[in-house]
Amino acid sequence: MTTQYKQVFGRPESLKDVATHFCPGCHHGTIHRLCAEAMDALDIQQRTIGVASVGCSVFLYGYFDIDVVEAPHGRAPAVATGVKRVRKDDVVFTYQGDGDLAAIGTAEIIHAANRGEAITVIFVNNTTYGMTGGQMAPTTLPQQRTSTSPTGRDVANDGYPIRMAELLAGLEGVAYSTRVAVDSPQHIIAAGKAIHHAFDCQVKSGGFSFVEVLSTCPTNWGMDALKANARVASEMIPYFPLGVFKDAACAEEGA
Amino acid sequence: MIQDFFMAGFGGQGVLLAGNLLAYTAIEAGLNASFFPAYGVEKRGGAANCTVVLSDGDIGSPVIGHPSTVLLFNPLAAEKYYPQVKVGGFCLANSSLIKDLSIRSDIETVMIPATDMAIEAGDARLINMVMLGALLGRNQIVSLDAVKSGLAGILPERNHRFLPMNNKAIDAGFAFTNR
Amino acid sequence: MKRLFVKGNEAVAMGAIEAGCRYYFGYPITPQSDIPEYIAREIPKVGGVFIQAESEIASINMLLGASASGARAMTSSSSPGISLKQEGISYMSGSELPGLIVNICRSGPGLGGIDASQADYFQSVKGGGHGGYRIIVLAPDSVQEMYDLTMLAFDLSDRYRVPALLLADAVIGQVKEALVPHPYVAPADLPSKEWAVAGKQGRSDQRIVKSLYLGDGELEAHNWRLHAKYEELKKHEVRFEAYQTEDADFVVTAFGSAARIAKSAVMMAREAGLKVGLLRPVTLFPFPEQALSELADRGIPMLCVELNTGQMVDDVRLAVKCRVDVAFYGRAPGAGSLPTPEEIFKQIQKNMAAKL
Predict the structure, then answer these.
(1) What is the DSSP letter of A149?
(2) Which of B118, B121, C56, C267 sits a CA distance of 20 to 30 A from C141?
(3) Computed from CA positions of residues C167, C168, C169, C174, in that sequence, does the dihedral angle turn out positive or negative?
(4) Which residues of A touch C65 (CB under 8 A)?
């Protein structure tokens, strides 16, 4: 009797066959993969345009096998607006970090969401500026030490971490807003479904969809991969609860 | 041939409409024209003035330092712009409002009770048409009829019911200076 | 074609739509709001898109996105808003994206005022944002040119993949004059936009619009390539008007509204028997260095007139390389500070007398 082998797991078509530059324990690679899996499953790779932001994820085009426009810091939702208005039948998504989306780009994300632009936004929240070396981000947790909050974030001086998924859910223009994490197999499966649903929302009902993904930054947190991964559940999820905050226009297609 | 005109008053007197109409009529008549409105920060009230340059050739500057034909609608405009009229030029001043003008001897000044004439024609706001008609009475760079049909051209259809009273005001102004 | 009586700002909007621009992104600011108002009304009729963005920054980045997608697109603003757009203009330059930016310049610095000004000359022609780049700068001086140069700006911008700026001011934007609209005809040799993102659509190669180059030598090579394009522009795309310069003993240089005022002064000088001409740059970048240099070869002294305290005069002086005197007359922008033809005529007389 001969053994038959069937491949049950592989690299998504939408991802290139290259090693990433991300630090060990960083969640970007996982989130990239989930996005690529959604593109494969929805069969949209050939009509997807990515808008890269400034930060560790700027090299989007290095990993995704799709057309990409690079946006100035924080401006990805505005750039994506321009792209989508021209390429109405294509699928357009931005991939942004917390400094990019929730600090310098606050106006752009709020207004793109409020216009109900038919784009998908993947928001990677790791509570710090990764590429510039671990400065305080708009999502840095109270008391969290960063290179620009060396004694810990002081809310009296620095204000509070912003909960973007909840904030955007309050806007009429938003079809779908959710927060997920990728720190455990269950969470990864749920995150994959959410990202799939977000893209599907854009494809099927032309709505604005937003997925906030809690993520690690072991290097700038000064932790090893496992400790960083554990921090997501112990410190981040209590402040940034997981869940769906809005699922309006595309509720019927919900995962 | 190149001629310049300057009109000044306050918002609501239709200064800009008069200038616009003169330039539009000239363009319809085959001349070149520029109409430059001075605008203030305020949306209502405040000073309003405009410069119109008409030519059968090139038009250089759309702004003129010392205009040769000047229409003054109110005392403030008179105070500011009467001294600016080019030597040898012509000035039409609204005597209904401008009372104490010390007449220059180096230009020709015609005082016209334009506001009173406008009220007589049906509405104080017709002062711009009285002044424009009076200008045409002295200077037929465009014809009276051309201006009247020009007005029909620039006024939106819904305001065409006002054309007869506007034409009456133009005629009154024309008759005043073309005696 | 029928002659229309049109405001300068509206002529820009008409020219843009005629040239096939179907995407406009902007934010209200005096004295250019006639442009978005006209486009908001007219562009939907031809299937176009008008977005009033949340800011000037968002507007320029929407333009970046639309342009990266291969569309003819534009934004317009006035000086303070153009300052905000500089970030996006730098990125567009680095990403080699075409696109039209209109600046109906007003006075500054800061909030300044709403009067006509040419004080954004340096910002326009020297690369207004970071990183060292040039953009195509066209300076219309009439309503007709507002229309014509808007069309040309799109063509040049598409051909060279360099952003184009139409630099006018409150005078040329607000003045109404005769306009003869004419159908837009695209140059037959305009290259197709094979670099624009479109979804891969089965292509094996990815299309990437970017300005980030981190590899050894990559960015330097990129910059030299951009520089070579600017040199090409200087070689092939200089445009200027020479008015009565053939027999001139003295030449006034000015652009845009200042050139219109100066032209009247030149007419006055001619009437007074003075042989005066006007050299009006139509393209501010590329600058008509050669034409000015040839006037200098003839030993002709010049007077540069601007609605600022002296900016283009630097470029005129560079072009003539100290061979002739270049005087300057400017009025700092602000309420009631537009120079008159008479004023400039006096300057001509003064400077010519000094030469005799």
Answers:
(1) B
(2) C56
(3) negative
(4) 51, 69, 71, 78-86
DSSP string over chain B? -EEEEEEEEETTS-HHHHHHHHHHHHHHTT-EEEEEEE--S-SSSSEEEEEEEEESS----SS-SS-SEEEE-SHHHHHHHGGGSPTT-EEEEETTT-------SSSEEEEE-HHHHHHHHT-GGGHHHHHHHHHHHH--SS-HHHHHHHHHHHS-GGGGGGHHHHHHHHHHHHHHH--
- Per-residue pLDDT of A9-49, as tens digits, reads 899 999 999 999 999 999 999 999 999 999 999 999 999 99
How far is residue C29's CA from residue A93's CA, in Å, rounded to a whole number?
31
Q: Return the pLDDT at A253.
A: 46
CA atoms within 13 A on the CB side of C36: 23
User: Longest Cα pair distance anywhere in chain C, in angstroms?
Assistant: 73
Q: What is the pLDDT along chain A (255 residues), one digit of tens a residue?
A: 788 999 888 999 999 999 999 999 999 999 999 999 999 999 999 999 999 999 999 999 999 999 999 999 999 999 999 999 999 999 999 999 999 999 999 999 999 999 999 999 999 999 999 999 999 999 999 999 999 999 999 999 999 999 999 999 999 999 999 999 999 999 999 999 999 999 999 999 899 999 999 999 999 999 999 999 999 999 999 999 999 999 986 645 444
Beta partners for B94? B112
List residues of A whose CB lies inside 8 A of any C CB: 45-49, 51-52, 58, 61, 65-72, 75, 78-87, 90-91, 107-108, 110-111, 115
Q: Are A133 and A147 in contact (CB under 8 A)?
A: yes
Q: Is C55 in Cβ contact with A61 (below 8 Å)?
A: no
The whole-number pLDDT of residue C333 equals 82
ipTM surpasses cut 0.90: yes
User: B52 vs chain C: nearest CA distance in angstroms?
Assistant: 9
Phi, psi of B30, rounded to the nearest 5 degrees: 95, 5
**Which pLDDT belongs to residue C295?**
98
What is the tens place of the pLDDT at every residue in C273-284? 999 999 999 999
- The CATH architecture annotation of domain C241-355 reads 3-Layer(aba) Sandwich (3.40)
A208-to-A35, A93, A118 alpha-carbon distances in Å: 16, 10, 5
Q: Are C210 and A91 in contact (CB < 8 Å)?
A: no
Set of chain C residues whose Cβ sits within 8 Å of the Cβ of B23: 5, 176
Q: Which domain holds residue A231?
A: 28-250
Domains of chain B with CATH codes: 2-177 (3.40.920.10)
DSSP percent split of chain C into helix, strand, coil, nearest 5: 40, 20, 40
Is the confidence at residue B35, as pLDDT, over 90? yes
C56-C57-C58-C61 Cα dihedral, nearest 10 degrees: 120
The Cα–Cα gap between B57 and C132 comes to 43
Q: How many domains does the structure of chain A reveal?
A: 1
Cα–Cα distance for residue pair B103/B109, rounded to 1 Å: 7
d(CA A101, CA A95): 9
- What's the rounded Cα separation, in Å, for the pair C277 and B32? 22
Q: What's the alpha-carbon Rg for chain C, to the nearest Å?
A: 21
Per residue in C30-51, pLDDT tens?
999 999 999 999 999 999 999 9
Nearest by Cα to A79 from C48, C64, C81: C64
Residue ranges, CATH 3.40.50.970, chain C: 4-179
Classify domain C4-179 by CATH architecture.
3-Layer(aba) Sandwich (3.40)
**What are the tokens at B105?**
């001897």
Which has the closest alpha carbon to B116: B104, B136, B99, B100?
A: B99
**For residue A139, what is the domain's CATH number?**
3.40.50.970
